[in-house]
Amino acid sequence: MVSLSGVAVEVAGGIGLFLLGMSLMTEGLKNMAGESVRKALMRFTRSPRTGVLTGLLATVVTQSSSATIIITVGFVGAGMLAYSQALGVVLGASVGTTFTGWLVAIVGFKLQLGAIASVLILVGALLRLFGGARRSGLAYTLAGFGLVFVGIVNLQQGMAGLQEHVDLGFIAADNLGGKLILMLVGVAFTLLTQSSTAGVISTLAALHTGIVNFEQAAALVVGMNVGTTFTSAIATIGGNVHVRRTGFSHVVFNTIVSGCAIFLITPYIFLWQSLLPDVPLAEIALVSFHTLFNLVGVILILPFIGQYARFIERLFPEKPEQQQTLLDNSLLKYPELALAEVQKLLAGQARLLAQQLVYILGESPRAISLANTGVALAETRQYLDMLHLDSSAGKEWERLLACIHLLDHLQRLYDRCQNQNVVLVLHHGEELHSARLMLLQLTQDLLQKDKLDPHQASLLVEQLESQEDHLRELTMQQIARGSIELKQGISLMETGRWMHRVGWHLTRIEHNLVLLDPMQTAESAVAR
């Protein structure tokens, strides 16, 4: 008889191997299919209903509901998806996360995969060592898949030994009190492992070896369905309003569905035994129950998803200043989404600076407050400091460079907008009238949808440079003749230089915004 400590170590090792395998497999699948998943989310999430299907499939492909939800949150934060559409993806991810249970129930306990799993781990390791970076996704997927099944074998062996030491018969699941206790155990297990999938697989192993009966296993799985939302809730700490809305939506939905499911265990057993009397209440019945109550919950809430979304939005209203200045650190591991967030923030600041320039040029009576702009630019600088890529990243590398260029020009434009001396000279300098009109045209171009041709914009900047040179020569002659004072002449030349530099910044800002435009990215993804 194996000691209890030895059995506990074997069970813990099985859980650890399973978690490591899932982590590697998820990483590998994201490397291989991550770009396709992001494009699919953009292309097919047209309504909450299509969002459910997209979220389900994306979670099955990546084997990670968290990855699906984080990608979706990034698209909402970047303005690419409406929150109501994203909510459908989140609900679909709740159903998709049950797929691993089906895989293990059908394959993991029915076939002897120990030898095959070892071969998969070896092939994955060799691919990672000798296959280069391009094969790393496949390498992680194969090695992770192998580790998952090695972990399951260890769990089975450990659970078989645990049966001799542990008797859970005292927690009767034939009454509500017992079900609630088991439900809390499921919640605690998920909090401990930070993975509802690991909890479900452990429960399947316990059911397979006879440590728990079906009612007990079902109550544990219901608790794990609640526990998985705590990870989402914790992830919202320090996040922006989109993260909080998404996390809270997940918590409310899973809690309500699980609260109802606890009362459906007994009716489900009755129906199963009535409709399928020859099929035992074992692993397939458990994963069917897990999928069924999540799927029914999604079907029931879909007709009211608009009202549900508005309820969550009222609980977490979006403040304008929050939208402009807050960046979400959780998106840094998804460069495309992090850059989309940066683009949205910088585009908002560019618009504010352009509106202030219209005031400086005397075409608007109302000054724009730039109190938060300096903070937003500083925060963006810190955010980009945490986002490290190299040229092999392809499109993301180019977008990161565009963000850095855009931030540099916005910072310089912000500094120039603080020059009060220029404002006075512009309002009283007749010599600057022509240049002021050209600069106004460039400024309004940044604010309008109908853009100037880039060649036209470049010509305007060249004309501003010519006017600066002409103004400088003319002003020096006036100073030499005594027509104007030296101080006044220096102010005029400084203002001419200011207008040329501002014009240059405006064209570069416009150029980099076009490179980063998320709508263009979405359209090109759809076209492909």
Automatic annotation (TrEMBL):
<feature type="transmembrane region" description="Helical">
    <location>
        <begin position="113"/>
        <end position="131"/>
    </location>
</feature>
<feature type="transmembrane region" description="Helical">
    <location>
        <begin position="50"/>
        <end position="76"/>
    </location>
</feature>
<feature type="transmembrane region" description="Helical">
    <location>
        <begin position="251"/>
        <end position="272"/>
    </location>
</feature>
<keyword id="KW-1133">Transmembrane helix</keyword>
<keyword id="KW-0472">Membrane</keyword>
<feature type="transmembrane region" description="Helical">
    <location>
        <begin position="217"/>
        <end position="239"/>
    </location>
</feature>
<dbReference type="Pfam" id="PF02690">
    <property type="entry name" value="Na_Pi_cotrans"/>
</dbReference>
<feature type="transmembrane region" description="Helical">
    <location>
        <begin position="137"/>
        <end position="155"/>
    </location>
</feature>
<dbReference type="GO" id="GO:0005436">
    <property type="term" value="F:sodium:phosphate symporter activity"/>
</dbReference>
<keyword id="KW-0812">Transmembrane</keyword>
<feature type="transmembrane region" description="Helical">
    <location>
        <begin position="6"/>
        <end position="29"/>
    </location>
</feature>
<feature type="transmembrane region" description="Helical">
    <location>
        <begin position="284"/>
        <end position="305"/>
    </location>
</feature>
<feature type="transmembrane region" description="Helical">
    <location>
        <begin position="180"/>
        <end position="205"/>
    </location>
</feature>
<keyword id="KW-1003">Cell membrane</keyword>
<dbReference type="InterPro" id="IPR003841">
    <property type="entry name" value="Na/Pi_transpt"/>
</dbReference>
<dbReference type="GO" id="GO:0044341">
    <property type="term" value="P:sodium-dependent phosphate transport"/>
</dbReference>
<feature type="transmembrane region" description="Helical">
    <location>
        <begin position="82"/>
        <end position="106"/>
    </location>
</feature>
<protein>
    <submittedName>
        <fullName>Na/Pi cotransporter family protein</fullName>
    </submittedName>
</protein>
<dbReference type="GO" id="GO:0005886">
    <property type="term" value="C:plasma membrane"/>
</dbReference>
